[in-house]
Amino acid sequence: MTTIDSLGEFGLINKISQLVPPPRHQDTVRGIGDDAAVIGTDGDEYLLMSSDMLLEGVHFDLMYMPLQHLGFKAVAVNISDMAAMNGLPSQLTVNIGISSRFTVEAVEELYKGIAAACEAYNVDLVGGDTTASRSGLTISVTVLGKVPKERIAYRNTAQPNDVICVTGDLGAAYLGLQLLEREKQVYLSDPTMQPNLDEKAYLVQRQLRPDARTDIVHELRDLDIKPTAMIDISDGLASEILHLCTQSQTGAVIFDDTIPIDDQSYLAADEFKISPVTAALNGGEDYELLFTIRPQEFEKLKNHARITAIGYMTADPSQVVLATRAGQHTPIKAQGWKHF
Ligand code: ADP
Ligand code: MG
Hints:
33% of the residues lie in helices and 24% in strands. The chain is α+β, with helices and mostly antiparallel strands. The strands form two sheets. The chain has a seven-stranded mixed beta sheet, with helices on both faces. Strand 4, helix 3 and strand 5 form a beta-alpha-beta unit. Helix 2 (67-83) runs parallel beside helix 3 and helix 4 crosses helix 5 (201-208). The longest helix is centred in the middle third of the chain and has 18 residues, at 172-189.
């Protein structure tokens, strides 16, 4: 017998992909292995389809996760996969498994968040499924989107010398989670203690109510830049750059001092005695976009405030490294499966 742990999440998905029959339909353009499945149409656009599931006790803790935020997040993390294909969402379905300890008012709160996300990302909720759950809450969202065929961005099409870019800043969602976990322990040991997280509001918000970067999809189109490859950062920069490199058969050099990190993240990392770069590399849940562009395109976005160049792709797939200014190179490794 083989434990799931020994395979890890990506090993398990790989295994699953071998257990299912190969695509039979010509319009199945891309199946398992990217941020979304890609389905051909007779028109100028591809259809995109992606699913994500959030489980109570694994992905969220209702002690500090307000239901409205949870509803928003469940939608946003799916929309992020549309953006990762350089596409935009159009419809979604929502499946919930819910135990009898929840009230109707709780469901109302959850759907307030879901509705807010539908508005924010311009997407129609068109169905779903509702079941009783023996324990806790499960939300699974499937989203459908579209992308002009000539603008689609896969994970496996980066080339050596491409500039590696990242949107926003990294590590904050993970540090937000550490803060919330710490405050939960304080509260459990003394319920009169009220946390004051005002100075850390950004970190908490990044964990509880992440935003999907559909704005970047519009901006890249307006700047007339087509990423050569793209992925969203759900599991941390390390894991995502490794996906891009493995699938594109490239190596990469990332300069540690260029990784965008917010001031609040620096302060919190210091408090938790972890390196902010480690939080960015291995933290996850930032839902920013990681993409590559041809070097000659870099001119077009080099002054962009919310897009940072952090390195470049190389020809040697065995070398995916973090470089210090002093010239030291350390291999980038993905963390194990955090949820097991
Ligand atoms: P993301 O982090 O972008 O949501 P995942 O790491 O969850 O992507 O999934 C990677 C790929 O594996 C995707 O193409 C996804 O559709 C596929 N996948 C994940 N779980 C399963 C499963 N149980 N059965 C089939 N395909 C799966
Ligand atoms: Mg993704």
